[in-house]
Every structure is written in C-alpha cells, then in structure tokens.
Amino acid sequence: MTQPHELEALAVDIAREAGELARVRRTQGVAIAATKSAIADIVTEADREVEALIRARLRAERPGDGFLGEESGAERGTTDLTWVVDPIDGTVNYAYGIPAYAVSIAVVTGEPDPESWRAVAAAVFSPAAGELFQAAVDGGATLNGDRLAVNAEPTAAGALLATGFGYDPSTHAGDLARVARVMPLARDLRRIGAASLDFAYVACGRLDGYFERGLQPWDHAAGALLVTEAGGRVGGVGSGGGRPGRAMSVAAGPGLFDALLAAAIGD
Ligand code: IPD
C-alpha cells in the first residue's frame, strides 16, 4: 500500500505545477467560460485547463484511483483512494485579480463521500503568495516546510474569524443571521474568498476559526486535514460535532471549536 507521505509528495508536486499554470494564465488575462449554480458562480477557462492538467497527471501516475473534481466531475477508481480536487479555489478572486486563490488537492480513502471518507494527504498551494500548505495523516502539517500549529485559544480580545457566503442569494439572509450569532466571539471577521485558504490559515494560526455553510467536498477536503494535522478540530452538523459539509463547516483550535460550532449552527 502506498504510504501517506508518498501520496502527500505527489499531491504537492501536482499542486505546484497546477498552481504555476494558474498563475501564468492569470498574467495572460482571465476569460469567464460559464456560470454554474448561480450567476455569481463562475468558471474560467483556467479552472478547466488546470483541472485537466491535474486529472491527466493523476491518470498517468495513479491510474487506478478515483477522481472527484469541481469542474470535471467524479470517476470511481479500482483502488480505495479518491483524489478530491479544486483546481482554482477562489475563482471570483482569481477573475478579479485578487491574489487569494489556491489549488486544493486531497486524497481520501473509503467511499468518495465526505460524510465517511478519511483524508490521507493534502496540498493547498497559493501561487500568488508562493505558499505551499501540506499534510499527511498522522504526519503533521507544514507551510513551506515549517511545522504548523493552530492557536489553542483566542486572545482576550476575541477570535479572529473568517467566513464565506454561498453564491445563491436566497441563502444570504441565513448567512447574515449566522454572522450576527457568531460576532460576540469575534475580535473581527474576514471574508477571504477561498475556503481552502480559510482552513489553511486556521491551521497556521493566522485565523482562530472559520465557519461557512454551503461548502462542496472539494472546498474542504484538503483544508480540513491541514487543520486536524495542526492540532485543530473540524466539524459540521451531526452527532459528535459532525463533519464538514454543505450544511456547515467549522474549523478552529480546541479552545474555540465548541463555542464557534454552537453559534454557527444556532444551538
Ligand atoms: C468558493 C470559495 C469561496 C466559498 C465558496 C466556494 P470556488 O470556491 O471557496 O470562498 O465561499 O463557497 O464555492 O468556487 O472559488 O472554487
């Protein structure tokens, strides 16, 4: 069986190559290819090209593994592994020229279902910042080679938090009500615009916590492993704190997690 650190190395290698392609395409100008679930939910030509590169590399190097990508869909494999890919997380930032976008690649075991899978390795690469976050299960998480640790507790000033808002306008009232519930815990709130980076920033202590409703599997697969490998907790709706998913995703250090989850889901 392939070891987690070998899968991590492959995820890193592909994320670097994919991120460099995204960065170069950005300098050449961005073309919106289509809208998806809502008029604000866009895909660029670069999203498609970068996902095609990632998929081709995985097909060449891991032909039996499954694939679940934001832009090109799912394909079951013959091994127990599935690669979960967001080629450009933060597409709206990318389209507007805001440098907070990232390639997010995770490899998971078990059914390709975020309710039950187990993440094995992950890479989140932010090409504009030159920052590579990576993790392997039980192997820790790093940023450009430096070991990561979440903030165990927020400071007395309160927690620096981040959130996001889905593309569907009908969900915005609920999202804003959630922000109102969470704000008593916060010193301030960020909306970075790339879920994988929100998780990565919790993992490295740039944020104390993150919460968002409506995430897709490829938005949280890699980032969640970064957080848990950095000593943090992730969860959502369901028994025992649940798992990150569409209904809710929360990530935080151990001293904040329960309070943030309760406020986010309205307990
Ligand atoms: C989006 C970003 C954003 C989050 C959205 C995601 P995309 O991913 O992660 O921060 O709020 O829910 O869909 O569409 O840029 O890959």
Question: What can you see in these coordinates?
Answer:
With 267 residues, the chain is α+β, with helices and mostly antiparallel strands. Helix content is 33%, strand content 27%. The protein has 7 helices and 15 strands. It has helices at 4-27, 45-61, 91-96, 172-182, 195-203, 217-229, 257-265, and strands at residues 32-35, 42-44, 66-69, 73-75, 81-89, 102-109, 118-126, 131-136, 140-143, 146-147, 159-163, 186-190, 209-212, 233-235, 249-252. The strands form 3 sheets. It has an 8-stranded mixed β-sheet. Strands 12-11-13-15-14 form a 5-stranded mixed β-sheet, with helices on both faces. A two-stranded antiparallel sheet has the order 1-2. Strand 8 and strand 9 (140-143) form a beta hairpin. Helix 1 (4-27) runs antiparallel to helix 2 (45-61) and helix 5 (195-203) packs parallel to helix 6 (217-229). The chain is globular. The mean pLDDT is 95. Bound molecules: D-MYO-inositol-1-phosphate. D-MYO-inositol-1-phosphate binds next to strand 5.
Short description:
The chain has 267 residues and is an alpha+beta fold. It is 33% helix and 27% strand.
Helix/strand layout:
Elements lengths: L3 H24 L4 E4 L6 E3 H17 L4 E4 L3 E3 L5 E9 L1 H6 L5 E8 L8 E9 L4 E6 L3 E4 L2 E2 L11 E5 L8 H11 L3 E5 L4 H9 L5 E4 L4 H13 L3 E3 L13 E4 L4 H9 L2
Helix pairs in contact: 1-2, 4-7, 5-6
This protein binds D-MYO-inositol-1-phosphate (IPD).
The site of D-MYO-inositol-1-phosphate has 14 residues, from strand 5.
Number of helices: 7
Q: What is the CA-based Rg, rounded? A: 17 Å
**Ligands:** D-MYO-inositol-1-phosphate
Largest sheet entry: 8 strands, mixed
Fraction in helix: 25-40%
Give the percentage of residues in beta strands: 25-35%
Elements, N to C (H/E): HEEHEEEHEEEEEEHEHEHEEH
What topology, given as strand order, has the largest sheet? 4-3-5-6-7-8-9-10
Say how many strands there are.
15
Tell the overall outline. globular
Classification by helices and strands: alpha+beta
| Mean of residue pLDDT values | 95
Q: Which spans of ≥5 residues are poorly predicted at pLDDT below 50?
A: none
Q: What is the CA–CA distance across the termini?
A: 42 Å
